[in-house]
Amino acid sequence: xxxxxxxxxxxxxxxxxxxxxxxxxxxxxxxxxxxxxxxxxxxxxxxxxxxxxxxxxxxxxxxxxxxxxxxxxxxxxxxxxxxxxxxxxxxxxxxxxxxxxxxxxxxxxxxxxxxxxxxxxxxxxxxxxxxxxxxxxxxxxxxxxxxxxxxxxxxxxxxxxxxxxxxxxxxxxxxxxxxxxxxxxxxxxxx
Length: 191
What we know:
Strand order of the largest sheet: 7-8-9-10-11-1-2-3-4-5-6-12
Distance between the termini: 37 Å
Largest sheet: 12 strands, mixed
């Protein structure tokens, strides 16, 4: 197996999907911090993503806008999807027609064991903070871990378990209804 053939396997796996739901653990290590959060990620083509954190925090991409909300806050923040510069945004390539070889340069393949591989590359179009992206996958091309290295050396790792593909999902699952008293404001990219 080569890096190019693995990229094509991942592309083929995700290009046939219409929806996906998985449990995730997000770990951030950098700037003297080490924190983990978890929750459920739901994706629906075209362009919809919902990160429901176990803490109640929500990050939603409805195809046009991204909305970030933390329970107890008086405001939810909305920004246009095209202005999104967020660590979760590399997963957006799973929401459209994927061609990893066009998204990532300098692809390398690292076998971890007989059935697990890591594909690493640098973004073809430079992003503000992202230095490299690594995807750990099985032979079918299903992503189990996504690791993002920032230009400042910080690492964010998403680990995915309990993958459910082509599950029943509707656009309504990606609509944010603010709790009473919560205002939606237009702001900068969510953190």
